[in-house]
Design goal:
Length: about 425
Amino acid sequence: MARLDTQSKLGILADAAKYDASCASSGAKGRDSRSGTGMGSTTGTGICHAYAPDGRCISLLKILLTNSCIFDCHYCINRKSSNVRRARFTPQEVVDLTLNFYKRNYIEGLFLSSGIIKSSNYTMEQLVEVARCLREDHDFRGYIHLKTIPDADPELIEAAGRHADRVSINVELPTRAGLEQLAPEKDEDRIHGAMGEMKTHILDAKDARRRYRHAPRYAAGGQSTQMIVGADGASDGAIVTRARGLYDNFGLRRVYYSAFSPIPDPSAVLPLKRPPLMREHRLYQSDWLMRFYGFSPQEVISATDEQGMLPLDIDPKLAWALKFRESFPVDVNRASKEQLLRVPGLGTKAVGRILASRRHRRLRLEDIARLTVSVKKVRPFITCEGWSPTLLTDRADLKALLLPPAAQLDLFGTPVPKAA
């Protein structure tokens, strides 16, 4: 087999990394090199892109160390039995790529994951060596996200957090049964154990920072995880429940959802087609409801259908409001923040503006229209000065009234609004 050059390896391993969605950098420590020492910088928020092999200039170099793997997970394109073309970087090659791309202003940081080669410990050593070399040998101050391997020695997992801004350990599938069926070489208890140890290290480091000003930071961006949606039979209700448990038990910064994508030469146990991308979007919206809008998992699940699936045509918040109309309408001039956050069409910023504005005068519907993106969805669920929805809230066809207008595709797939 011909030896691959660095450019060929980059094309293979950047493309292989596209299935990993958990590469945001929010929460990372702000660093820069304006003092004249070090190299690179990170703003701490907003870095959430990747470097693509087609040459597009993006802000995060997102690659695998290797796409070879000793595991044979049914859903993974890089599984042992897959016939994809294999490639492997050395740690020094990844370091050189990161520095060279930074000097060309292509990137602000690195997202590094890997298939498992030889053993979990060997692979983890390679990943940690990349981060160590960047930080210690080159004083690199940009963002680093390492995907860790739960089977690796705890000391290696701990070392990853010392050099990386964020670490992540994928739970892979929403249920234990799904993991046993599609990834039999992975163990849920070991994954949870590694996440628990990482949580302990992060909390210890935060405590040390409170006690000692110069105590080193440790994975300042926290830890995250990713679940594959649609590869097994898990319902949206089961996924929402699992996500809430991960947030509560391990203090995760984010749970990412990745819609299953059919792969070449798939296993017979996998579905033949991918789930709708809208399902992934609805799960992110339900995640937002739990994290920022005060919804419990049970309330989100109450908006699902008999099969435990969230509706695809409307967002989970509107689905919940339509099922529990007795909670509406709410008076925007008197309702609490918690009540306002449950009104469809009102986001956290809009609620903040309403609370600030009503201190000075009673709000009318035209005021709400100025404070929100669209008042159409809000109107049936609120009362305000000069406005009451009367019977609008209880109309049987309310859902149809709130749906976006139907659009017809033209010959080239561009939506064309229907004539009135």
